[in-house]
Amino acid sequence: MNDDVNNVPNEQEGEELDNIIVLNDENGEEIEFEFLDLIEYEGEEYVVLLPNDEDDDAGEVVILKLEDTDSDDEESYVSVDDEDVLKAVFEIFKEKF
Prior knowledge:
Distance between the termini: 31 Å
Order of helices and strands: EEEEEH
Mean pLDDT: 81
Largest sheet: 5 strands, antiparallel
Strand order of the largest sheet: 1-2-3-4-5
Shape: globular
Radius of gyration: 16 Å
Structural class: mainly beta
Strand content: 35-45%
Number of helices: 1
């Protein structure tokens, strides 16, 4: 039996940091999220994020709409109020995984 089966190769050890997004909430506080996926739905793009905070409900994702900005360096995310859109985007996300 090979004992190296569970070892993680060195080049993969830091990869989990590459998908962390830091957003500011309405109080200006920074919140870290793990980027899970980018979903296109009805011509719009939505990001699926997992809060990177142990206090949050386990497994609860956040879906935000990606909005265009004047800057090429920044992206803007806005909350989605339409429950039907949220459900549809989440269903697409579930089908992919």
